[in-house]
Amino acid sequence: MQHYNFDQNYQLISYSRDELNHQEFECCTFKSCDFRSCNFMDVTFIDCTFLGCNFNGAHINHVALRTVTFRNCQIKDVNFAMCDKLLFDINFYNCKLDFSKFYTQKIKGTTFENCSLIAVDFMASDLTEVHFDNCNLYRAEFDKANASKANFKTSFNYTIDPTKTKIKKAIFGLKEVNGLLFKHDLQVY
User: Fold this and answer.
1) Which of 55, 61, 68, 94 would you call most buried, defined as having the most Cβ atoms within 10 angstroms of its Cβ?
2) How many CB atoms sit inside 10 A of residue 182's CB?
3) In angstroms, rounded to a whole number, what is the distance separating the alpha carbons of residues 42 and 70?
């Protein structure tokens, strides 16, 4: 049975491995908290905000993220692919998500703003209408993803193979168009 937490503010807490397990948080704010040691199990976050928190390497298996916002967070090497897929709704602002995984996850309409997404795994993900605003997508993997209507206009360093990724009506900046043409060994100036 889950312990229910509503409209609480948590600040400067370093959580231990199992401290948050079997809990539900609704309308809560976490500020400058450290989740690196956590091995989340049966945890639900609804309408929650994380500000300046550290999730680097945290194990977030069996976590439900429903309308959750991350701002100025460190979230390197986190596997979001293992999160509950029901009502999965997240947004990221000024976050470092390098080496994280969204493999097969449906993140339609998600916003990534001013984020580092180096070597992030978006393989086979639904990225429909995702907004990548000023994001570094160096070595991010988009194979078999659906990025239809996604907006990459202000992002950079991406390499996307249009024969392996659906990009119908996606928006790209002319300055970074080489990231779509790499497999043809063309040079555009």
Assistant:
1) 55
2) 12
3) 20
Rounded to an integer, what distance in angstroms lies between the CA atom of residue 144 and that of residue 146? Answer: 7
pLDDT category, 66, cuts 50, 70, 90?
A: very high
* Residue reference for tokens 């990225």: 127
Q: In terms of Cα–Cα distance, which of 79, 124, 91 is closest to 106?
A: 124
Tokens at 124, concatenated: 């086979």
Query: Among 59-63, 115-119, 184-188, whose mean pLDDT is lowest?
Result: 184-188
- Enclosing H/E stretch for 152: strand 151-152
Radius of gyration of the chain (CA): 17
pLDDT of amino acid 62: 84
**What is the tens place of the pLDDT at every residue in 14-48?**
999 999 999 999 999 999 999 999 999 999 999 99
Alpha helices in the chain (DSSP H): 178-181
CA distances, 154 to each of 12, 62, 125, 157, 171 (Å): 34, 33, 21, 11, 9
